[in-house]
Specification:
This protein has 225 residues and is an all-alpha fold. It has one domain: Four Helix Bundle (Hemerythrin (Met), subunit A) (Up-down Bundle), CATH 1.20.120. Helix 2 packs across helix 3 and helix 2 runs parallel beside helix 5. It is globular and about 55 Å long.
């Protein structure tokens, strides 16, 4: 358990160092209050969820630490995850360059709204973790896994991706960038490709999932799709 917690904190700190570099190096300044607040909001939310998993669901924490293109077992998901990682980096870099060269003029209330969307995205992710201990960082099926249809899974099939999308939409806003929002379109494409591929995998691998698809109509956004 102590080793798991150390690895989790180490992963969290590593992520924050990377995000700091992606924000402040392209901006080429530390006098970037939007960047500092965005980073703080992201860190507090991510740390809060990590601490909760340490206490209440270490098995899920272990699953979440296995992630990324290299960890995926399906070739299609390796490609999708690799492209998603690139897009994630570009999202921060474009937003920071926007600040550096003053391409956008973003009101303070929009920046605050972006921070609020980051929090909302993490809240959705937290609710997913509370009802689904099988939410692995990669697409796989555990031996004792069952179909989850309660909580946010009663509204959409992929609430985890919905939370991630809300969070990602908020990031450029929180960094004071309109241009960064242009990266959201390829992000949505990658999310859609991943969830469609995931559904096919779960239909083949998880008993009862096909019935769940018939009962829950919407994949990503309630009343939309």
């Amino acid at each position: 358990m102590k080793d798991l917690n150390r690895r989790a904190f180490g992963g969290l700190l590593k992520m924050m160092v990377i995000l700091s570099a992606l924000i402040f190096l392209p901006a080429w300044t530390v006098h970037y209050w939007q960047g500092w607040i965005s980073l703080l909001v992201f860190f507090v939310c991510a740390a809060g969820i990590t601490l909760d998993l340490m206490k209440h669901d270490p098995a899920l924490l272990e699953r979440r630490m296995t992630a990324g293109a290299g960890a995926e077992k399906e070739k299609s998901q390796k490609i999708i995850q690799a492209l998603t990682s690139i897009i994630f980096v570009v999202l921060f870099v474009i937003s920071a360059l926007d600040h550096r060269f003053a391409w956008s003029s973003v009101p303070v209330f929009v920046v605050v709204g972006g921070d609020a969307l980051i929090v909302l995205g993490f809240v959705v992710v937290f609710l997913v973790f509370k009802v689904n201990t099988f939410t692995s960082g990669i697409i796989e099926v555990a031996g004792d896994q069952k179909v989850i249809s309660t909580g946010p899974y009663g509204l959409v099939r992929h609430p985890m991706y919905l939370g991630a999308l809300i969070l990602l939409i908020g990031i450029p806003m929180s960094l004071g960038s309109w241009w960064g929002e242009m990266v959201i379109l390829p992000t949505i494409v990658m999310l859609v490709l991943r969830l469609l591929d995931e559904e096919g995998f779960l239909v083949r691998s998880l008993p009862g999932y096909e019935e769940y698809l018939r009962r829950v109509k919407y994949r990503l956004a309630p009343f939309v799709w």
